[in-house]
Design brief:
- Strand 2 (about 65-70), helix 5 and strand 3 form a beta-alpha-beta unit.
- The longest helix has 16 residues, at about 275-290.
- This protein has helices at about 5, 20-25, 30-35, 50-60, 75-90, 110-120, 135, 140-145, 155-170, 185-190, 195-205, 210-215, 220-230, 240-255, 260-270, 275-290, 295-310, 315-330, 335-350, 365-370, 410-420, and strands at about 40-45, 65-70, 95-100, 125-130, 145-150, 180, 220.
- With about 425 residues, the chain is an alpha/beta fold.
- The chain has four domains: about 20-150, Rossmann fold (3-Layer(aba) Sandwich), CATH 3.40.50; about 155-230, Orthogonal Bundle (Helicase, Ruva Protein, domain 3); about 240-330, Up-down Bundle (Zinc Finger, Delta Prime, domain 3); about 345-420.
- The strands form two sheets. It has a five-stranded parallel sheet with strand order 2-3-4-1-5, sandwiched between helices. A two-stranded parallel ribbon has the order 6-7.
- Helix content is about 50%, strand content about 5%.
- The chain is elongated.
């Protein structure tokens, strides 16, 4: 069965909910539509406010061929195929087939570059949708060829009106005796997202269908909505609690050396549309915090992963992220670097601004040299093994161990080296 959100897509601008500053009577985008000539443009706004719906509606009203791609799973090859198809359509119809790209901010530079020629020539009229600021996420060459229209959150009255309209007009719901006594829980769950709101309404109606078949009306209260949503909602919300729970599970799985769980939680985030740079940033942090000196190459791979996904974009970036997640999960672990800087900051907090030992101070002027700045400093490379034991900490904390090597093969070798070099000063 077609979902309620799809069944309720408006068929005219008059039934389109919200964004009256763009499509209301006399508004700028409505005038362009009514003239039958629209520019390439980008719709920037939060989830569920009608970006996809508006693009589809414009194509229908202007009777233009409509091609749709999602930046989550489309590559350069898909873009070129869509442009070729649009070009063929233009041979038989007026130019300007519409190419709609959802989440265009996820396209890499090379993917966005692939659009430029078709937009310039008018082969396609590009409509991009994004939840991120296009000034930062869309390349300047493409952005300069597009108008940017900002979509606003739907108001409470608009969301309630959407529910009431669905109950009155939808071919299925209008036959069911549903009475909305309280709206607050549904509105809270939706977070202003019309799609999620209609999904919640459909969930409630489907779950309670047997009761309504008995002739009793379904009275929708906040308590009923909370109960049903908690029992049935298994969604990934990249701005809510699920976002933090799943990234936490991802990090803890890699820290716990479980590559199977790591790639599962990675897949959950990718499937939910999580920002791939956010995922990569967290892996860079983990590479230092939890793998650290037990495998110094982990940080190199994680930072390379960050660069690579920016160049490649989705869907191929998923492979790069998977490789890095598995590598981090299967690497030996050490949080010694993390603990060391924590110990050092705590020491600074407790001891304040201790003076730098004179022999470590910089001496760029004659006066400073006369005050013995730099006097007695021993240059390590003048000594055998490029090492000489001297005091490098302030006198008040001399001999304090802040870095404690971890229990792994690499750092055990480091511990042995430090023990030999610093015997008599640091008790490793």
């Amino acid at each position: 069965m077609t979902p309620l959100a799809e069944r309720m897509r408006p068929q005219s601008l008059d039934t389109y909910v919200g964004q009256q500053h763009l499509v209301g009577e006399g508004a700028v985008l409505r005038q362009a539509i009514e003239r039958g000539k629209i520019p390439s443009f980008i719709l920037w706004g939060p989830p569920g406010v009608g970006k996809t719906t508006l693009a589809q509606l414009i194509a229908k009203l202007l009777q233009k061929p409509f091609f749709q791609l999602s930046a989550i799973n489309a590559g350069v090859k898909d873009i070129r195929e869509a442009i070729e198809s649009a070009d063929k359509q233009n041979l038989f119809q007026q130019k300007g087939a519409i190419l709609f790209i959802d989440e265009i901010h996820r396209f890499s530079k090379s993917q966005q570059d692939a659009l430029l020629g078709a937009v310039e020539k008018g082969t396609v009229t590009l409509i991009g949708a994004t939840t991120e600021n296009p000034s930062f996420e869309v390349i300047p060459a493409l952005l300069s060829r597009c108008q940017v229209y900002v979509l606003q959150h739907l108001t409470k009255d608009e969301l309630i009106g959407l529910v009431d309209r669905a109950l009155a007009e939808d071919e299925i719901l209008k036959t069911q005796p549903i009475e909305i006594q309280e709206y607050d829980a549904m509105l809270l769950y939706s977070g202003g997202d019309a799609r999620r709101l209609l999904n919640a309404l459909e969930l409630i109606a489907n779950f309670s269908a047997p009761e309504m078949e008995s002739g009793k009306p379904l009275v929708v209260t906040n308590d009923l909505v909370r109960e049903l949503i908690q029992q049935n909602a298994a969604l990934y919300d990249k701005t809510g609690e699920q976002h933090y729970d799943i990234i936490s599970a991802f990090i803890k799985s890699m820290r716990g050396s479980d590559p199977n769980a790591a790639v599962y939680w990675l897949a959950r985030m990718l499937d939910g549309g999580e920002d791939i740079e956010f995922i990569a940033r967290r892996m860079v942090i983990l590479a230092s915090e939890d793998v650290g000196l037990a495998n110094p190459n982990a940080l190199l791979l994680a930072t390379t992963t960050m660069d690579a996904i920016r160049m490649i974009g989705m869907p191929e970036a998923r492979i790069i992220l998977s490789q890095c997640a598995i590598y981090l999960a299967t690497s030996p672990k050490s949080n010694a670097s993390y603990m060391a800087i924590g110990n050092a900051l705590q020491t600074v907090k407790q001891t304040g601004s201790l003076p730098v030992p004179l022999h470590l101070r910089n001496a760029p002027t004659k006066l400073m040299k006369e005050l013995n700045y730099g006097s007695g400093y021993q240059y390590a490379h003048d000594f055998q093994g490029n090492f000489v034991q001297q005091a490098n900490l302030p006198e008040a904390i001399d001999g304090t161990i802040l870095y404690e090597p971890g229990a792994n093969a690499t750092e055990e070798r480091v511990r042995a080296q430090l023990r030999e070099q610093w015997k008599g000063k640091y008790k490793y």
